[in-house]
Write a structure and sequence with these properties.
The protein is mainly α. Helices cover 66% and strands 7% of the residues. Strand 2 (53-58) and strand 3 form a beta hairpin. Helix 2 (18-28) packs across helix 3 and helix 6 (109-138) packs antiparallel against helix 8 (153-187). The longest helix has 35 residues, at 153-187. The model has no long low-confidence stretch (mean pLDDT 89).
Length: 189
């Protein structure tokens, strides 16, 4: 999948500046796609040249002018085309921590254990952020009320991000338990 598809997905929320997209990327699509601000700006420029987004310039005093991007008809058509494409094989996990865990039997148990604990801390922080995003989306409504009135895509992807992090935490707890038992067995020898 190209970054442009994630940018077009973010623009479904409405007109946004590059800065707003970069800032909001964390809140809207970061649970399934990441990009640096520089990557976003380069992609927006390409998309504008290709007619997928239009730009409106807002004059600002004491600041550079702000460019606001929105999807064009061609952008919506490209997004519909992307939706119709087959997705191919599932994404493979590429995670250096998992490579380290697979090698933990050769030593450095404490270092790997600390890295798993750190990953779990990151997961808890992401879950807290996702929880805040969920509350902002729901705005006091229950899930059924929200889903009857709003776009369902952002909510469904948020639920996937939540379940992904919850599973990472479950795995981390299991891994730490196993490594603790292994350390105790080694020290008891």
């Amino acid at each position: 999948m190209a970054l442009r598809n994630a940018v077009m997905a973010a623009l479904l929320e409405g007109e946004a500046s590059g800065y707003d997209l970069a800032k909001g990327f964390d809140a809207s699509v970061a649970n399934f796609w990441t990009a640096t601000p520089q990557q976003l700006y380069r992609e927006l420029d390409r998309m504008e040249r290709e007619g997928l987004v239009s730009t409106r310039v807002v004059r600002q005093e004491r600041r550079p002018d702000k460019r606001l991007f929105s999807l064009t008809d061609a952008g919506y058509a490209a997004l519909r085309g992307f939706l119709a494409e087959p997705i191919g094989r599932p994404t493979a996990i590429r995670d250096a921590l998992l490579v380290k865990v697979s090698c933990v039997d050769v030593g450095e148990l404490d270092a790997v254990r600390a890295q798993i604990a750190e990953r779990m801390d990151w997961g808890r922080a992401k879950l807290a952020r996702y929880g805040r995003l969920r509350e902002r989306l729901l705005q006091g409504r229950d899930e059924a009320e929200y889903l009857a009135a709003e776009r369902v895509g952002p909510y469904l992807t948020l639920l996937r991000g939540i379940s992904f992090e919850e599973e990472n935490l479950r795995w981390g707890e299991t891994a730490l338990r196993v490594l603790d038992a292994r350390a105790a067995a080694i020290s008891g020898r």
